[in-house]
Amino acid sequence: MMDIDTAKSYATRENLMKALERLGFADKRPMVVRNSEGRWTAIFSLSMAGIDGGYIAVFAVHGFKTFQ
User: Fold this and answer.
1) Chain centroid, CA 47 distance in Å
2) Domain total for the chain?
């Protein structure tokens, strides 16, 4: 179980997607989900993105959740 309510979130899916593009994360294949407040966030699977563990800190600094 993962608490996504503490992740960085956006009021609309469009705003989230714009932020992911701006940060260079859109091509990392995030899972786009809604939290319990109905806000949008992204969760990143390191294995699906084809990246190493070094990216965990990059996503975390921007408030997103990751899993392996």
Assistant:
1) 14
2) 1
* 13-22: b (≥16 Cβ within 10 Å) or e: eeebbebbee
Q: What is the pLDDT of residues 14-67, one digit of tens each?
A: 999 999 999 999 888 899 999 999 999 999 887 655 565 567 778 888 999 988
Could you tell me the residue range of the domain that residue 57 belongs to?
4-67
Element (H, E) at 67: strand 65-67
The whole model's pTM is what?
A: 0.83
> Given its phi and psi angles, is residue 30 left (phi above 0), alpha (psi -120 to 50 degrees) or beta?
beta
Tell me the C-alpha distance between 48 and 22, whole Å: 21
